[in-house]
Design goal:
Elements (H helix, E strand, L loop, with lengths): L2 H14 L6 E3 L2 H9 L4 E3 L5 H6 L10
């Protein structure tokens, strides 16, 4: 399974489990595809603080 397939599988599992999530994708084509499928996604590189901020990392909480 490649990284894109495993990421898509993770998004599906999170959605089915009704868990909150925001995906971050740097590849514009994958960003558009994930957004088209109805997932919440931010375009950019997760190594940059402004992208993490745009994704709401400061408001994130750990689920148990």
């Amino acid at each position: 399974m490649n990284a894109d397939a495993s990421g898509a599988s993770l998004l599906l599992h999170l959605r089915v489990a009704k868990m909150s999530y925001i995906a971050i994708k740097s590849d514009l084509a994958r960003f558009n595809e994930i957004q088209r499928l109805g997932h919440t996604v931010v375009h950019g590189d997760a190594a940059h603080r402004r992208i993490l901020s745009a994704a709401g990392l400061a408001k994130a909480r750990r689920s148990s």
